[in-house]
């Protein structure tokens, strides 16, 4: 196969991890990222096109003669980038606008689950506080309140009391998340441990693409507000082969088949957030892209060349592609976040040590960084760096990541010191 020109869309830690892995492929001749970040710039050309500028990204893909476009963030899918690329004949790894509703509308996904009998929590969808309150009357605390649309991983409230639930409903419907909160989804609370399962689909065929376990709360001990994710590890011991097989059979396969049957074939990453309940795995939510920071650990553990997998999915040829192969090692990712994250992250804090060589198995991905005058690296987002490591065991990977973090600094920054605690606290 001739070398490919690849356009990667996005600018965060997930995209840096994808760029890092794509650039290692013998098939990658030219890698362009839009808009990218200072870390991605080490392996790709950067172009200043926003992820929500679908027309600009299509024009860029045409300009560079892209053989493949890889979409990182869900916001690009929401504006129909994949559809516009399809209209000009450019293969895209990422879902159509309609298929991406599995992430961009929680109400769409819950209704889809109901139509196809997929295991998930009981729910209701509401546009006014009165009807939401009537539904809350039928549930017991705690309550799960979600903004229907995209809210950067922060549009979920687990309310311990009815008063908190009512306040969350009013807050969301009142505009806290803009149009994303014009409708709210209220769910029964599911008891169990959460884990993430990944599949890659070409609209007809799906292949398993690893698993991970995230840490959503901002502070140690799972305290503080929900975030986009403060760290993750892979593989999660709690997600056994039996549970993966069950989730595959009861969720992934019927979702791919159901989306195709409804005329919205799903192409790209299907990321299932699972609650491992006493009754088996149930769907918490679907995401239409690689998780962030789950992607970082998957890229470290992926032994296969990623480009043939992405291209086969984009071209509808996954059935004939080689299945992904994985390293035996465990991987961990620790997020270094800016002061005030997630509510009001402080940007501009100086970063030091991120470009150091920490040895084999340790990689620092840039998530929210920019370079100022004289090349000084500063924070430009809430989640700033992802310090990741491989190890023979999760304990070894964790030690390597935290060891590297001792040499990386961000003015006012913070990170959780207990990533991996669930797996490491389990009896061996």
Report on the architecture of this protein.
- There is one protein chain.
- The chain is an alpha+beta fold.
- It has 13 helices and 23 strands.
- It has helices at residues 13-23, 54-64, 74-78, 81-87, 101-104, 106-116, 129-136, 162-173, 241-261, 294-301, 306-315, 394-405, 421-424; strands at 4-10, 28-35, 45-46, 68-71, 92-93, 123-126, 143-147, 156-159, 184-188, 193-202, 206-214, 217-219, 223-226, 231-234, 267-277, 280-287, 330-337, 351-352, 362-366, 369-371, 377-379, 383-391, 409-410.
- The strands form 6 sheets. It has an 8-stranded antiparallel sheet, with helices on both faces.
- Strand 15 (267-277) and strand 16 form a beta hairpin.
- Helix 7 runs antiparallel to helix 8.
- The longest helix has 21 residues, at 241-261.
- It is globular and about 60 Å long.
Short descriptors:
428 residues; alpha+beta; 8-stranded antiparallel β-sheet; 5-stranded parallel β-sheet; 29% strand
Strand content: 25-35%
Structural class by sheet pairing and helices: alpha+beta
Tell me the strand order in the biggest sheet: 16-15-10-11-14-17-22-19
Query: What does the overall shape look like?
Result: globular
Radius of gyration: 21 Å
With helices defined by DSSP (H or I, 4 residues minimum), what is the helix count?
13
Tell how many strands the DSSP assignment holds. 23
Largest sheet: 8 strands, antiparallel
| Helix content class | 25-40%
Mean pLDDT: 95
Separation of the first and last Cα atoms = 46 Å
- Which segments are poorly predicted (pLDDT under 50) over 5 or more consecutive residues? none
